[in-house]
UniProtKB/TrEMBL annotation, chain B:
Its main location: membrane. Part of the ABC transporter complex MlaFEDB, which is involved in a phospholipid transport pathway that maintains lipid asymmetry in the outer membrane by retrograde trafficking of phospholipids from the outer membrane to the inner membrane. Probably responsible for the translocation of the substrate across the membrane. It comes from Marinomonas transparens. Keywords: Cell inner membrane, Cell membrane, Membrane, Transmembrane, Transmembrane helix, Transport. The chain crosses the membrane at residues 12-30, 50-71, 147-178, 198-217, 238-257. It is found in: Cell inner membrane. GO terms for molecular function: phospholipid transporter activity. GO terms for cellular component: ATP-binding cassette (ABC) transporter complex. It is a multi-pass membrane protein. The complex is composed of two ATP-binding proteins (MlaF), two transmembrane proteins (MlaE), two cytoplasmic solute-binding proteins (MlaB) and six periplasmic solute-binding proteins (MlaD). This is Intermembrane phospholipid transport system permease protein MlaE. Belongs to the MlaE permease family. The lineage of its organism: Bacteria, Pseudomonadati, Pseudomonadota, Gammaproteobacteria, Oceanospirillales. Pfam families: MlaE.
Length: 270, 260
C-alpha cells in the first residue's frame, strides 16, 4: 500500500448532509496511473466522494489532496484550473442537450485551448474514434441510446487529455454489451494515456475485473482497501455480504423502524 | 409567542433568500462570457427563444385588448358625444399601464416558466455540474445570456404590444364603429407625450423585465432537481413573478403619476 504513488489523498474527511453523517473520518488513497474502484451499497455517498474530490462539495473537516494540492483551499480560478486536469463521466452522461455530439466534445476545447477549428476537428475525430462513435458526430444527444450517450460523455470527459478521469456509476442501466465496451474502454484509456481513473460503482464483477485498487465504503467508513484479489479473499463479513450479494448480514435487510414506528411491535414476529 | 417567533423565522428565511438571489444576480451579470463572439452567439440564441418566440402571444393579446378597450371606451364616450377621444383613451391606457403590465404577466407565463423549467432540467441532468467540472462557470454560460436576453426583450415586446393594441383599437373604432379616422389619430397625437407617457411605460417595462427574468433564472438555478421540484419552481416563477409585477406597478405608478 505504502509503496503506491498517491494521486489523490483523502485524509480524515468528515462530511454530513442534512443532519445525516455521510463520512466519518474517511481516509483513502488513489494511486497514480491506476484504475481505482470505489464500491459500496447505494446511499453510502460514493458520488459524494467524487464531488468532494472535484471540490463541488466541501467537507466539514479533513483534507482532500489532488496531485499534492488541497483543492478545498484554492481560490475559484485556481480550482477551475485544477478541474481542467479532471474529467468526469456523470451518471446521466450530462451531455449538453442544446449541442450536437460534435459540439459537446468541441466545447471544452474551444473553452480552454487556443486550437483553431481544423485542429479541434482533428481532436474531436480522434476522441470519437476512441469510443467508436465517429459516425454519430452529427446527432443530437436526444437521438442517442443510453450506452451511446455514455460513450459520447466519455469522449467529452477525455477531450482535454486529463490526468484524472472519474466515472460515476458507468455501468448502471447498461446492457451487457455496452457494459463490456465500457469496461474495456476504461482500461484502454487508463493504460494508453497513463490516466488515473476512479470508478465509483456497485457493479461488483465489472469493477473488480478492471480495478488495480479497490476501496469498499459502507456506513460512512472504509471497510476494505486493497487489490482486487485481496478484496475477493477478504474474510470480513461485511465485505463478503456485499461481494456475494447476500440479502442479510452485517448490513441489515430491515431499515430500522425507530420509536415512531407505524406498526404494532408484537405483530412482527409471526 | 410562538406565532411571533415563527413569523420572525420566516422573515429571516425570506431575507436570506432575497440576499442569496441578489448575490446570484450580481455574480451572473459580472461574470459575462470572456470571448466576445461566443457571448454574442449565446445571446442571439436566447433573444430568439425568449423574445421572438413570445411575439405571437404578445401581438394576439395586444390586438384583442386594443379591440376590447375601444369597444368599451366608445360605448361610454358616445354618451358624451366625444367618441373621437377613443384614440386618446386607447393610447394612454395602453402606453402608461396595460402594455407593460400585461406584457410582463404574459412574459412571466410564456418565457419565465420556460426559462425556469429549462435551467431546472439542466440542473437535474447534471449539465450545470458538468460545466463546473469543465472549469466553465455555469452562471456566465447559462444564466447571464438568459437574463440579459429577458431584460432586452420585455421592453421591446411591451412596445409591440402597444402598437398592436392601437391597431386593433383602430380596426374596431374606425372601421367598424365609424369614428372619424383623422380625429382618432389627432386626439392621440395631442395627448400623448414622449417623455411622460411612452418613456414611463418603457421604464416600467425595464423594471418588470429585471424582476421577472431574475425570479425565473433564480428559481431554475436553485430548484430541487427532481420532477416535483422543477414543477414547483416553475409555478413559483409565475406566481411570484406576477405578484411582483402588480406590486411594483403600483409603486412605480405612484412615483411617476402620483404628484397631483
Amino acid at each position: 500500500m505504502s509503496v503506491l504513488d498517491a494521486y489523490i489523498k483523502i485524509q480524515d474527511v468528515h462530511f454530513t448532509r442534512g443532519g445525516r453523517v455521510i463520512y466519518e473520518n474517511v481516509s483513502l488513497t488513489i494511486p497514480r496511473g491506476k484504475v481505482t474502484a470505489v464500491m459500496g451499497p447505494s446511499g453510502t455517498g460514493k458520488t459524494t466522494l467524487l464531488r468532494l474530490i472535484a471540490a463541488q462539495l466541501a467537507p466539514d473537516s479533513g483534507d482532500v489532496l489532488v496531485d499534492g494540492q488541497n483543492v478545498h483551499a484554492l481560490s475559484r480560478s485556481e480550482l477551475y484550473k485544477v478541474r481542467k486536469k479532471m474529467g468526469m463521466l456523470f451518471q446521466s452522461g450530462a451531455l449538453f442537450s442544446d449541442m450536437s455530439v460534435y459540439e459537446n466534445i468541441a466545447f471544452p476545447l474551444e473553452e480552454h485551448t487556443q486550437l483553431d477549428a481544423a485542429a479541434i476537428n482533428k481532436v474531436v475525430g480522434q476522441k470519437l474514434h476512441s469510443v467508436g462513435l465517429r459516425g454519430a458526430a452529427g446527432l443530437m444527444p436526444s437521438e442517442l441510446s443510453g450506452g451511446m450517450a455514455r460513450r459520447v460523455a466519455l469522449a467529452r470527459a477525455i477531450a482535454l487529455d486529463p490526468e484524472l478521469v472519474m466515472y460515476d456509476e458507468p455501468f448502471t442501466g447498461q446492457d451487457p454489451i455496452s457494459k463490456g465496451v465500457l469496461v474495456s474502454l476504461i482500461r484502454e484509456l487508463n493504460d494508453s494515456a497513463n490516466i488515473t481513473s476512479v470508478v465509483v460503482s456497485h457493479d461488483v464483477e465489472e469493477s473488480l475485473s478492471i480495478a488495480d485498487h479497490v476501496c469498499i465504503l459502507a456506513g460512512g467508513r472504509v471497510i476494505a482497501e486493497g487489490s482486487a484479489a485481496q478484496i475477493r479473499a477478504s474474510d470480513d463479513p461485511q465485505v463478503k455480504q456485499f461481494l456475494n450479494g447476500e440479502p442479510d448480514g452485517p448490513v441489515p435487510f430491515h431499515y430500522p423502524e425507530g420509536v415512531n414506528s407505524m406498526f404494532n411491535k408484537d405483530e412482527v414476529a409471526l | 409567542m410562538k406565532a411571533i417567533a415563527s413569523m420572525g423565522a420566516w422573515l429571516f428565511d425570506w431575507l436570506e433568500a432575497v440576499g442569496r438571489a441578489g448575490i446570484f444576480l450580481v455574480q451572473s451579470i459580472f461574470r459575462m462570457p470572456v470571448r466576445f463572439g461566443e457571448s454574442v452567439s449565446l445571446l442571439v440564441k436566447q433573444l430568439y427563444s425568449v423574445g421572438v418566440l413570445s411575439m405571437v402571444i404578445i401581438i394576439v393579446s395586444g390586438t384583442f385588448i386594443g379591440m376590447v378597450l375601444s369597444l368599451q371606451g366608445y360605448s361610454i364616450l358616445a354618451k358624451f358625444g366625444s367618441e373621437e377621444a377613443v384614440g386618446q383613451l386607447l393610447a394612454l391606457s395602453l402606453l402608461r399601464e396595460l402594455s407593460p403590465v400585461v406584457t410582463a404577466l404574459l412574459f412571466a407565463g410564456r418565457a419565465g416558466s420556460s426559462l425556469t423549467a429549462e435551467i431546472g432540467l439542466m440542473k437535474a441532468t447534471e449539465q450545470l455540474s458538468s460545466y463546473e467540472m469543465m472549469g466553465v462557470d455555469p452562471l456566465r454560460r447559462v444564466i447571464a445570456p438568459r437574463f440579459i436576453a429577458g431584460v432586452i426583450c420585455l421592453p421591446l415586446l411591451s412596445l409591440i404590444f402597444s402598437a398592436s393594441g392601437i391597431l386593433g383599437g383602430h380596426l374596431v373604432s374606425v372601421s367598424w364603429l365609424g369614428v372619424y379616422d383623422g380625429a382618432f389619430w389627432s386626439s392621440m397625437q395631442q395627448s400623448v407625450y414622449f417623455d411622460t407617457d411612452i418613456m414611463n411605460g418603457v421604464i416600467k417595462a425595464v423594471f418588470f423585465s429585471v424582476v421577472v427574468t431574475w425570479i425565473a433564472v433564480y428559481q431554475g438555478y436553485e430548484c430541487v432537481p427532481t420532477s416535483e421540484g422543477i414543477g414547483k419552481a416553475t409555478t413559483r416563477t409565475v406566481v411570484l413573478g406576477s405578484l411582483a409585477i402588480l406590486a411594483l406597478d403600483f409603486v412605480l405608478t405612484a412615483a411617476m403619476f402620483g404628484d397631483f
